[in-house]
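Many introductory courses stop at the sequence. We go one step further.
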Amino acid sequence: MAIEINGTAAPATPRPGQCLRSFLREQGNFGVKKGCDGGDCGACTVHVDGTPVHSCIYPAVRAEGKAVTTIEGLAQGGALHPVQEQFLAEQGFQCGFCTAGMMMTAATFDDAQKANLPRSLKGNLCRCTGYRSIADAVCGTHNRHNHDGGVADPAARPASTDGTAAAAATTSRAGQLGDNVPAPAGAAVVTGTARYTLDVPAEELEGLLHLKLLRSPHAHARIVSIDRTAALQVPGVVAVFTHEDAPAQHFSTAQHELYTDDPDDTRVLDDVVRFIGQRVAAVVAESVGAAEAGARALHVEYELLDTVFSPQDAMLPGAPALHGDKDAGKARISRPRQNVVAELHSELGSVADGFAVADFIHEHTYRTQRVQHVALETHSSIAWLDAEDRLVVRTSSQVPFLVRRTLGRVFDLPEDRIRVLAGRVGGGFGGKQEVLTEDLVALAALTLRRPVQVEFTRSEQFTATTTRHPFTIKLKAGAGKDGLLTALQLDVVTNTGAYGNHAPGVMFHGCGESLAVYKCANKKVDAHAVYTNTVPAGAFRGYGLSQMIFAIESAIDELAVGIGMDPLEFRRRNMVREGDDMLSTTPEPEEDVHYGSYGLDQCISLVRDALDRGKQRYRDAGLDDLGPDWVTGEGSALSMIDTVPPRGHFAHTRVSLLPDGTFAADVGTAEFGNGTTTVHAQLAATALATTAGKVAVRQSDTDLVEHDTGAFGSAGTVVAGKATLMAATELASRIVTVAAALAGVPESECVLDGGGVDCAGRRVPLEEIHGAAQHQGVQLAVEGNWDGTPRSVAFNVHGFRVAVNTGTGELRILQSVQAADAGVVVNPRQCRGQIEGGIAQALGAALYEEVRVDDDGRVTTDILRQYHIPSFADVPRSEVYFASTNDQMGPLGAKSMSESPFNPVAPALANAIRNATGVRFAELPIGRDKIYLGLKEGTLIHTR
């Protein structure tokens, strides 16, 4: 019997053993997503005879004779299903990759299930939103408190610390700056028609081949030989690629504007493997199954080499040198024979003198763990040759232009012979600022001259992509009884794994703003980024800052306790103020980093006041007494981040008037839930006196614009957005010029507004202006460029109130508050969502997420049910407040606010637990078992 899909009998029958997910996608139902293939994430949820199932673990044969409904069939008669309407109205998504599955589950809920969403949504995961907007969408409710993303009434806002009133909120116009404009792709997301990387119909990729990898079972070995004979005899296998077929060029998978920021220590396929999971060979076949069978059939002979798994051991004399054969200068590795990728040594003032005058000294070692990005769309790419024989790569990337440059370097191709484009990207968080799949499909497509696709499994994401860098931070800090810091000394070791992608940048950045936010005459840093035979680390939200801030903000609290001062007051006394030099490791501040605006003082007041109100609410409700086994406490932490990465971040955009009177904006930045598409439309609309709905944004394609460094370092708004604003502003001027000439009046008497220009009482429609400009040969398409400098700083402060059960170690978060200095907030609802998502991800990293590596270097947490990311039940609702500032450098006063919300969460939580229990937990994650054991041992760390 046939399977009925969305009311129509499927023309095909499933293959033996095929899951329903892959069968539905083969029939063109691309709204059915792959996030895990283990029944863990829910992105593949569909209805079978009205019951929601995870189609990745549902055998397709079981659906024969049954009615299957996918997201594409949820709407009936041309009208959206109520749950689709609600997700669209409440913008219950960011990247949107999980959204179809989430809606398919929620569409079956009755009132009782809606009343118990922690249980009802336990099978659906979202990595982006923090779940608040999803809850509002499922229940059809909208939370309208001041902290829902808008700025509170200025009259009710706290005064800044210098006694002046906080600035008033920016007045917004519909569809422009400050409005809660919905995401342009919203309708496509909720109907399942948004196209992600692999959502390409088969007829568009005739002859598509599939690539799978054989990966190393050894942590360190030399490949002696690879026998391809058996693999090539597997039916359907077309080719096998090994190190003998790969380019000799070394490169880094990390992607930056300057490729010289990272060491050239990687080959497409190497004859030495340096971690378990490294690529050994690529098998290309007519089907995924054949490619997997071919990979299993390969016979590889290895020569095992000595291994080292801890960075401390890797720096010892006699340790195996992972890249000891490389030239330090040519590869840009600090000391390859000692496994040191990069290092930093700096002292400002004299820490010895600072400690000599300190009344209290805190000294301890802090450790942070490996964390995986867990973007629900795994790394994937398709490559083919177009009609002009150009290499085309469609990829899940944050940096398509940098991918093009890297492919050109590796394959010795001019950039004009390469096109790289990204569809909608299913999450990034820094993990897609790499080249991890594009080089493989490029090699195969260039050789075989057929389209080739690769899609990583969830296990490959854990074992063979990148993680956050683990940090070990030996910290010593001193303060006087007057509440002023006297010395800060840090010895930092980062574990970059087998390859140095992002190792220098993460180390340097981590040791930057985390220290610069505090005034202290005596600061010393010694830092090393070190190779080990473990899965490589890379770029992760915060880029080194979250690790360093955990240590420094924990120490700040210990100093405050040691001298008997309120921790927030201690921070106020020591944090930089507008006009202060921001110093970390150099005696002079970064020459292009300035206070474009300053809202750190407001953020501290907002968090302090919110925590006080929360405590009073609990007291008034009689909830403040949890029983004799419970202790409560509060904690906070602050963070600062430069709004743009250093040494250049470039964006080129083009804004055009179209014949129908609407506008087009061509930009290079990718959309992966970061909201840049909406921001570009709003900034352009504001300059052009129209609405965001009248601006069509095209993006993420190297054929569209000249160059864009990429969507990382929170640069989507402040760099690419500024380029868009510049182009739109100049276009508005040109439109007025043409209109004035048509009306025969001075430009000073012309005002662009809505769909035309008011010229001294005569309205000239935009359609007429476009036609006149064409006739006159005037271009109404303007290009904008911005180079990312000068840069500003953004601030975040987080506060928690927690309860801890002293008998069991159970932790309850009673209140979570974050205040952000985001400048003028372009889209309050969207910005709030970014902050909520950052908080949720940071809570996972603080409490339970950890990529565990065993004594042999093998990742043991390689599926989602072994690696716990926050589910709906795990995430408290956070109050989000915005400082009222107007940045002089950002577009229309805006600042970045994408990765920074993550950074202060873990130390704020650790400080709250310390305040409640008296025990300092200095190693992440702070799981319930650690809390229990810490309380049982009563271990207070040594201070004097």
